[in-house]
Every structure is written in C-alpha cells, then in structure tokens.
Amino acid sequence: MSRHNEIIYEVVAALAAANGTDPGSLEYTLADYVDPTMIERVVASNTATELSFQVPGHEVTVTADAEVFIDGISYRTGRRSPISTSERSVDGNREMPDQRQLQRFFTNLPCTVYQSRNEAGWPIEFISGNCHELTGYEPNAFIIGGVNFGFDLIHPDDCDRVDAAVDAAIESESPFSVMYRLQTADGVEKNVIEIGMPLFDGSEPLSIVGAIVDLTDMNQEQAQAVSSLEQANPHK
C-alpha cells in the first residue's frame, strides 16, 4: 500500500480510535464528508500544508507529514495512546512547533504571508490563514483547490508589471516590492503591496516567499510610507 493510499486508512483508524471502536464499526464513510483524493493530495504535496474537515463529533486535520489529528490530538500507528500537539518532538527530545502553531503565528501578522513555486501564476505552497480576510479564499483553495494567485487574483492590467518585478528580482537575486490591484473572490478590488524574494537551489530559482499588505484601511501617512517603499524598488 502506498503512503498516499495508506493515509486514508490511517484517518479512518484514527476516527475509530477516537470513538473507542474499530474501523468497521464507524456509522459513516469518510467520503461522505471529504473527497479522499484531497487527503492524498496533501500527503503527496511535499509542502508544509494541511487539510482540515469535519465529521460527526470530530474535527480532523491531516498534515503533509501524514499525521492525523482528531480534535487536536495526534493519532499515530503503533502508539498505545494518542499524543497531543504539545508533545510532538524531534528524536524524542527537543519540542518543535507544529504546522498549526506556525499557521496561528502567521495569521496574527498584519499581512498575508506566502510561499509559491516559481512557475506560471505562482502556485501557492503555503499561505497564512488570514488570506481569507484579504482574498475571500481559504488557504486550502490555493493549495489543493485550484485557485491560482497570479491568474485568478492579480488584476489583468497589472500582471505584466508584477511579472517584471519578480523576474528582475530573480535575475538580480534580490528582494522586490510591487503595488497592484487584487481581485477578491467576491469581486472586490483592493490595492495591495507585495514584498518578497526568490529562493534558490544553487542557481535555480525554486520558490518565491513574501508578504502581501492590504492598503485599503491605511491612513494617508501609512500609505505614503508604503508608496515610498515601492518607489524605491528599481524594478517596477
């Protein structure tokens, strides 16, 4: 059984364990509440992401590391008892923050943080949870739902300018900043500034990381400061 197919069994087994029963005794099927292929895609993505969904009586989260959380408790094959997220560690020693802790940290920032692949439209690999306030979309819409930031959100008249700013940053191996119009899921147009930088594997630009700030509610002094930052970028 492949890792991707095995994760479906792991989710069912975890739900059964949470209910104190065996998998064959569950009163519902997983497919009634989530498309199993979405779970497989998360595990196959090789990115720091996760999928959350509801089943009767429980909230389920599956991470790209093939960990299954039921109501915040991690269920792992071979363990006698579940472990909480606070007990997750490396080599059984030093505790490390889990993906959900990082997501909560990024969500509290006054901007939307992301990592995207350096491909057409910049497919999102990670985006902070507060992206819904900015874009009208939940994080999973970008990661496994097919919504493309470059093709679906950036105003068509601004795409060439954003492309040029990112291309120039890649060529010079330097950060970029660019202002553009963003179109939300509800059709609202927002002015934003994006500040980012390319990440390289040797000489190959693999990813773009950055932050997007909504300029809509900024006062005049704040907007002028942000505008000065964008004007200081020579690759507009």
UniProtKB/TrEMBL annotation:
Task: Kindly give the Pfam families that the UniProt entry links to this protein.
Answer: HalOD1, PAS_3
Location of the PAS domain: 98-173
Q: Does Iron show up as a keyword for this record?
A: no
**Catalytic activity, as annotated:** ATP + protein L-histidine = ADP + protein N-phospho-L-histidine
Keyword set for this entry? Kinase, Phosphoprotein, Transferase
Molecular function terms, GO-annotated = protein histidine kinase activity
UniProt-listed InterPro entries:
HalOD1 (IPR040624), PAS (IPR000014), PAS-like_dom_sf (IPR035965), PAS_fold_3 (IPR013655), Sensor_kinase/Photoreceptor (IPR052162)
Q: Does the keyword Metal-binding apply?
A: no
Task: Tell me which PROSITE patterns the record gives.
Answer: PAS (PS50112)
Q: What is its EC number?
A: 2.7.13.3
What protein is this chain from?
histidine kinase
Taxonomic placement = Archaea, Methanobacteriati, Methanobacteriota, Stenosarchaea group, Halobacteria
